Structure formats: C-alpha cells, structure tokens
Fold this protein.
Amino acid sequence: MKEYFALFRIRFINGLQYRAAALAGLATQFAWGFMEILAFGAFYRANPAAFPMEFSHFVSYIWIQQAFLHLFGPYGGNPDAVESIVSGNIAYDLARPMSIYNRWFAENIAGRIARTALRCLPVLVVAFLLPAPFKMTLPPSLFQLAMSAISIPLGLLVVVSYCQLDNISTFYTMSRQNAIFVVAADFFAGGYIPLPFFPEPLRKIVELTPFAAMQNMPLRIYSGDIAGMDAVKAVALQVFWCATMLLAGKLLMRHSLKRVVAQGG
Amino acid sequence: MIVLENINKTFRVAKRQAGFGRAVKALFSREYELVHALSDVNFKIHDGEMVGYIGPNGAGKSTTIKIMCGILTPDSGSCEVDGRVPWKERVAHVREIGVVFGQRSQLWWDVPVIDSFELIRDIYKVDQKRYKNNLDELTELLDLGEIVKTPARSLSLGQRMRCEIAASLLHSPRTLFLDEPTIGLDAVSKIAVRQFIRKQNAEHGTTVILTTHDMQDIEALTERILLIGKGQILLDGSLDELKRRGGEQKIEEIVAALYKEYQI
C-alpha cells in the first residue's frame, strides 16, 4: 500500500499548487450555482406544482454539486494515464512493480480530493450564509446525514471506476479524445439538469444506470429528496455499480495489457 | 539467468501510400501489414554477463528488451528471467530489474528530480539506508549534486539522462536493461556512465543488456555481442573474436560490414 500512498501524496501536493485555477474555478462555480438557482427559481414561481423537487432540496443539490464539482465530475480523471498510453510511455509504467489499475485509481482519487479541498469550503460557507430561498440547508434528519456520508465516498468510487473504463479504452482507441464518455456521463449523472427533471420513462431508466450512482444519489440523499428506504436502495445500487465497474475494469485491463504496444518504439 | 526460446512477436501496422486519394480510400478499407518484429529468437544470458545487443534500426532490439522486461507479451515462445516469466509475473519480476529507455522519461516532469527519486524509493520499497548509500554513490559518480534539486523539465537532455540512469539503479536491480542509454550525453557524461555501469557489474554482479548505436559503448562495456536483423538473431559471439575477424578495421566498420554481409 505504501507505494500507492506515495503516489497519492505527490498527486495531492501537485493538485494543491494550482491556486489561480482554483480561484477561477470558484468564480465559475458561484456564477453557475446562482444562474441555475435563478433559472429554476423562475420555473418554480411559474408553476410550483409542476416542480418535481422541493425547492430547498433543489437549492442544496446545486450548492453541494458546485462545492464537490471536482469530486464527482466525470472529467479530468487521469490525463497522464491517457497520455502515457498514447505516447508509449506506458512502457515505463509497466516496468514498475505495481498494478497499473490501482495506480491510476490512487492518482485519480488524489487529484479529485486535492482539487475539491481547494474549492469546496468557500462555496459551502457562502451557500450556508445566503438569505432564505438561496440558502443551503443541513440534511432534514441525522439518518439522511449519515446516509449521505456513506453515499458521497461511494459516488466518488463509482465515478473513478467509470473513469478507469474510459482510461482503459485508450488502449483500444489510441486516441486522447474521450468526449463521449465525459459528456454522456455528465448529462445522465444529473450534472446539467437534476434527474427528477428528466421526462418520465427516461428518468426511470437513467436512475438505474451507473451515471445515477455518481453525484445524483449523494446529492439527493443529502438534501432529503431521496429519503428513508429509498436512500438505502440508492446506496445499494451505488455499491452494485461500483463493484461491477471495478471488476469490469480489472478484467479489461488484463485483456489490454496482453495486447499492449509501446507506441513510438 | 535469462533464457529466451523460440520467441515470436508480430505487430499489425496500418499502411497507406501518400496522397489525398489514398487517404480517402483508407476511410473505407484499411490495409494492414503484419510486421514480424521477432521470429524465433533464442539466446541465454548468464548472471553477471554484459551483453551488447546490436542491429540496425527496426531490427527488433527494443521489442526483445520489452519482452524481457514484462512489458510486451510475445505471440509464442518462452522467456524466463531468474526463473520468472516476465509478462506473467510482471510485478515480482520488475522489482528485480532496472530499465532505461533512452528516448523516454521516467522522471515526473514538474517536480525536482529528488522528489522523483523518493517516489521511486517508495514504489520499490527500498529501505532508507540502502537508498542513501545508492543515492550518494550515484550522485558522486554521475555528478548529480545540483541537478537533482531542479525540476526534470528544466534539465538538458544529457543532465536528464544521467538522472534517468540513476533513477533506474536506486533499488539495486540484479539485471539492468539499457535501451540506448547514452543518447544525448556529452563525452564526459558518457565516460562517467560507462564507468558506472562497469562498476555496478564488477561490484554487484549486475547483469547488463545494452542496446546502442554507439560502438564505443559496446567496446567499453561488453564482452559478448548479439546481432539481430529483421527479427532474427544472426550472430552470437564475443567482441574479441569479432575484432580479430575484422583485423585492422574499426569496430564501427566491422559492424557495418556485418550488416552488409547479412543484408539487413
């Protein structure tokens, strides 16, 4: 394990050094958060009955989403991993006594936590201090708080194990372009529009996919939109997708390493 | 001890002629060519040997090295290094070997070289005392004193190569694979690196397999020569014998004559 912690450490330190990027990111997250709340607030005022979430749930959803954007976003996983496959530097990675899968996993999580550590506090503090309709609230009960404390790390693991599949696909495509992986995942995870706003048959299907197990579940459990037994079911689905994608990733990795080539000689 | 028996490796390579028409045609049907990178490669290398692995560009040198390092899986044939099949027991195997790919970098680009060294120390679980001994020795011999505090991206090629070689030796590997390790080195560094490799071999019995196009590397380091061309081992003999055959000729000319003789 020590070697993975060492990698985690260097990645974490690396992630902390980009102050300007963090500031710019913060500005974006505030702007985006306010914009979403104002836009959806207009819908809510027009017809509260047609709004599929309670407004306070929606507001909390948006603010944690913005605070934890880099924890759950399906983007920015391991640019180095993709680059090393495409450039052929994977040769050196394979010459190290460690599992490539676990290594990418550790690096991905480290980068996410570092980027989130720099950004989440200001967003959360401001969101709690805002006046009433824009204000982020605590979970409605201790149970919801506890469930979200389980669901948040699980959501992270689901995202990372999904990114691993994306990384491994590079062995087959030999391309740096993975937009379809990212945009589809972000959309179906509720990154642009929360899943309750999806039209009916689509919503039911999407809620069973791994995408729904990413940010959708922890955010809605925290706010109280998914409550009681539904929260337990949601966590179970997260565990299922996490285990499935981990297993799929490990198997795919084994297959791809058998046919790996070091590009560029 | 390294044993390769009947190793074969082919790559599928997409090919097309130059030009717009051909490029459009390739959109619909692509032509692939099977390149036989290695056909029926056999050799044995004993512990403590220093072997020069030579051949023209594209002969299969790097492919062989990568198979012995556990990076590539051959299509058929067997390979054992110290009793292990490299690609099957990769993690256990690579712990015992050191690798330098002269045209690549293993150092983390944005951090000082010393940080990379410490990361490598943790990855290989080198204990602190051995790490310090190795680092001191490497620093002195390769003259790394000031360089290691600099981020890898700010180093010149030669400075970086010295660090790359040091990085591959921090865990005292039993076998060292050097794939063109002297690219970009100045005369002083080249001599330092050669001295260092000889010292490793003499003091620690490190097995060294070296590919290079620099015949002075070969002359300074190796006693045995393996010549590969078009994926086949063409010659396996001692350097002295080769020199005797060549008479007055320089080693460079002898090798060029060999390439001609085997039409590779």
Summary: The radius of gyration of chain A is 19 Å.
